[in-house]
Structure formats: C-alpha cells, structure tokens
Write a structure and sequence with these properties.
The protein has 409 residues and is an alpha/beta fold. The protein is built from eleven helices and twelve strands. The structure holds adenosine-5'-triphosphate and magnesium ion.
Length: 409
C-alpha cells in the first residue's frame, strides 16, 4: 500500500472522484478516505464539473463513458479552468484510442476498469500528485530565478549610476581644488592692490606723496596686476578644459564618414605641431572603410593621444614615431595608437584616465586630457580603451568601438 501523499502545507490532498457507477465511486471513495485522503464525489459529468469548480480539488479521477456530459467534456473543462490539476482517467473499454484521445485532451494518467489492485490506485494518485508538486516547485524556482535576475540587473544599473556619480563627484571636487589655488592667489593679490591704492590715495591727498612713493606704488601695481592676470588666466584655462570634459558629448549626432579620409584630415590639422620636430606619424587604415560614428569625438581622441605622445612621450627625444593602426573586427573598429617614447611607470599608467592626474602640474598640464578621452571612448563611442605602457618601452592605447558600416559611395 502506498504512503499518504502530504501536500506542502501539510494538509491531506483532496480527490474528486467522478463516476456514474455507484459501486466504483463509493468503493474508491471509501478506500481513499481510509487511507487518509479527503474525498468529494460527482455522480455524473455535470455534477463532477460543479464540484470541481466549487472545491478546486488537488486531483480529479474521472470515468470516460458517462451519459450526457462524458469524461472528455470534464477533462476539457478542467483544462480550461486550471491547466495543471492532474486528471486520472478511468476507462472500462480499455480501447487504445480512448487512451490516446484522453492523453491528447490533457489527461495525466490512465486507469483501466476493473481496478483489481486498490493500492495501485494510490500509487497512481501519488505519482500524479508528486509530478504536480515537481511542476510547481520548478515554476517557483524559475520565478525565483527571474526575480533574482531582475534584481541583479537593477543592481548592476545602480552600480553603473553610482560609479558615474562617484567619478562626477571626484571631478567636481578636483575642479574645486584646482581652481581654488589660482582664484585664492588672485583674491589675495587684489586685496593687496586695494590696500595699496587706499594707502597711496591717503598719502597723495595729504600732499605727502613723493616721486619715490609714486614709483614704488606703480611698481607694486604692475607686479600685483600681473599676478592677478596670470592666476585668473590659469583659472579660466582650467574652466575651459573642464567645460570640454563636462559638455554633453552625446549632443553630437552620429554620421557616416570615410574613416581613412577623416583620419588624414585630423593628422593634417596636427601638422603644425609636428613642424620643426623630428617626429612622425604613421597611419594604417583600410581604404574605403565607411563607418557610422561620432567624428568630432574621434578627432578629440586622436588629438589628445598625439599631443600626449609629443609632450610626454617624446619629452627627451627628437625622432619619435607615432603609429596609428586601424582595423575592422566586426562589429568593432580597433584603433591602436603606439608611440616609441619614454613610456610610463606603473603608477602613472594605472592613473592615466583619472581626472586631474598629471605629471606636468604647474607646467601647463591639467590632467584632464586622458580623462576626456576615456569618457569620449566609453560614453560617446560606446567602446573601450586600455593603456599598455612601461618605462622606456613606449606607450600603447588600444581602443575598440562599434561601427555601423554603410555602403561606400
Ligand atoms: N604617450 C604618453 N607617454 C608618456 N606619458 C604619458 C603619455 N600620455 C599620457 N602620459 C602621462 O599621463 C598623464 C595624464 O595625461 P593627460 O593627457 O590626462 O594629462 P596632461 O597631458 O598632463 O594634461 P592635459 O592633457 O590636461 O593638458 C600625463 O601627465 C603623463 O604623465
Ligand atoms: Mg594631455
């Protein structure tokens, strides 16, 4: 005899038995009740359907051949309301076609009358209930999985956002810090100037100003004004570079252009910077490669890379080479920019994309160049950039970004 199947909530399963033969219905019901199941019955198809709709039992056993509403009709109604409740069909005919039809209509199991072994009945019922439980567990598991995936995706988005916010916060803090110095010096100098002016004015109005006093005053004015001008220009320059970084780069709309032609134009515009140096630039790019991307961003990227190679890489060199290689690895364009300059120690290479990171502080570097390149590559072009560099081994930037290739006209 089979063990009583317990539902997840600990309750005994409720079985609906529908059969128009009183003897069968009642003997099944008695037997199942004796074995701990809760049983409801239907004396014909219609009563069975009513019972099913009223009680939503855990399993239905239904006779196929009944007058008026037959077992197939019951099966169809059960499937129409609840696609999953197991239905075991009892048939007296034993016809193979009945089995096939019932299974096609959605029956879970099949039992031939007369049922000689009632324990076999319990096994059938338990199997069907077990199967049902597995289906439910699987569904819950899948739902859990879906919720987890959705939660992970949300978390990932939040992480990206907070990363952006963090880097923006850093940028703003950096700007405040960088601009504080020249503006602070400017303010001090201006107040010094103002004190000097009022002191001289007092002296002059009292008729005490000598020629020497005037000369000293003019010298101080000149010196201080120069200091103010120098510091305010530095602040203005910082703000200009900052604005360039902060400007929403995506305001440029993408367009189709011939990559090689465009690269040649960019390099032409950089020619004045190469003049009177022994450095040269080499470009390898497939002819007639037409891409859909952001040419303005590309131009800023190349300009920064070339200028950095000239200013930093070739600092102590006069015949450096910058090699720019472009290839297509659909769906990406790979752009590799290599210089054979002085390279970078690890701590520089690791921080090269950080805002305000520069080894030329005080001599014109703002440390925003590569940060801007990073933003342009990752945000505007939707690509990736990495830096490979070692002292005395030159520097290489590898950029990859998606292209949408168009036909060449
Ligand atoms: N090709 C290169 N070779 C050697 N060092 C480099 C190279 N490119 C960048 N660097 C190092 O990385 C630092 C950061 O570069 P980045 O372009 O961000 O700032 P910067 O050139 O110093 O200032 P800015 O570009 O804002 O005027 C540089 O100060 C330099 O030390
Ligand atoms: Mg730079």
């Amino acid at each position: 005899m089979g063990e009583l199947f317990k539902k997840k909530d600990g309750q005994q399963p409720q079985i609906l038995i529908i059969d128009d033969e009183d003897a069968i219905r009642e003997s099944f019901a008695l037997y199942l009740e004796d074995n701990g199941y809760r049983v409801i019955t239907g004396r014909d198809g219609q009563e069975g359907i009513d019972q099913f709709l009223e009680h939503s039992p855990d399993l239905v056993m239904v006779d196929l051949r009944m007058p008026r509403v037959d077992g197939f009709e019951v099966l169809r109604t059960v499937r129409a309301t609840s696609s999953e409740t197991p239905v075991i069909v009892i048939s007296g005919t034993g016809a193979a076609s009945d089995v096939v039809d019932a299974l096609q209509a959605g029956a879970t199991g099949f039992l031939n009358k007369p049922v000689w072994s009632l324990s076999h009945l319990i096994t059938k019922i338990n199997d069907a209930l077990e199967r049902q439980r597995l289906i439910e567990e699987n569904r819950e598991y899948q739902q859990g999985l879906e919720t987890t995936i959705t939660r992970l995706q949300t978390m990932q988005k939040q992480l990206v956002e907070s990363e952006k916010m963090a880097s923006l916060g850093k940028l703003v803090a950096g700007v405040a810090h960088e601009i504080n110095t020249p503006v602070g010096i400017g303010v001090t100098a201006a107040s010094h100037l103002s004190e000097n002016i009022s002191a001289f004015k007092k002296c002059y109005e009292a008729g005490d100003a000598s020629h020497d006093d005037l000369e000293r005053f003019l010298n101080t004015m000149d010196e201080t004004a120069r200091m103010i001008l120098g510091n305010l220009s530095r602040a203005a320059q910082l703000i200009r570079s900052f604005k360039q970084v902060a400007v929403d780069q995506s305001s440029e709309s993408p367009r189709e252009f011939k990559l090689r032609e465009y690269m040649e134009d960019i390099l032409l515009s950089l020619k004045p910077r190469m003049k009177r140096t022994g450095h040269r630039i080499e470009l390898a790019c497939p002819e007639d490669l037409k891409i859909r991307s952001y040419p303005g961003a590309l131009s800023q990227i190349i300009t920064n890379l070339v200028m950095n190679a000239l200013i930093h890489g070739f600092e102590n060199k006069n015949n450096g080479t910058i090699d720019i290689r472009i290839s297509k690895e659909t769906p990406n364009i790979i752009l590799v920019c290599t210089d054979n300059g002085k390279g970078m120690p690890e701590e520089v290479a690791d921080n090269v994309f950080e805002p305000f990171f520069t080894t030329k502080r005080g001599t014109g570097g703002s440390g925003l160049g590569m940060h801007m390149v990073f933003n342009l590559v990752t945000q505007t072009l939707g690509g990736e950039i990495r830096c490979e560099s070692e002292p005395d081994k030159g520097t290489r930037f590898v950029i990859s970004f998606p292209h949408e290739e168009g036909p060449v006209q």
